[in-house]
Structures are given as C-alpha cells and as structure tokens.
Design goal:
- There is one protein chain.
- The protein is 29% helix and 20% strand.
- It has 49 residues and is α+β, with helices and mostly antiparallel strands.
- It has a domain of 27 residues.
- The relative contact order is 0.13.
Length: 49
C-alpha cells in the first residue's frame, strides 16, 4: 500500500523520505536542525506582512 511519507520503486525499497523538522526543534526532542525551517517560515511571513 502506498504511503504518503515516502516514495518507493518496488516493495520495501525506499527512494525518499519526508523529513519531520517538528521533531528536531528543541534539544530535549533530539536536536535543533529543524529550527531553521520554522524560523525561515516565520521571517518570510513577517516580511510579507
């Protein structure tokens, strides 16, 4: 069955996976790599307003 979070070319062969930056926003959650994405969205939204 197709899954929306990844692409496959044959059963069980994953070609790509959707990142989940919300899981890497705070150090307590395992890291801060995803923070840049959310900060970029916030800055772009404020600049456009």
């Amino acid at each position: 069955m197709p899954r929306p979070d990844r692409l496959e070319n044959q059963p069980d062969r994953v070609l790509g996976m959707m990142p989940h930056p919300e899981r890497l926003y705070e150090p307590a959650l395992g890291g801060v790599d995803g923070r840049r994405i959310f900060e970029s969205i916030l800055v772009s939204t404020l600049e456009a307003a």
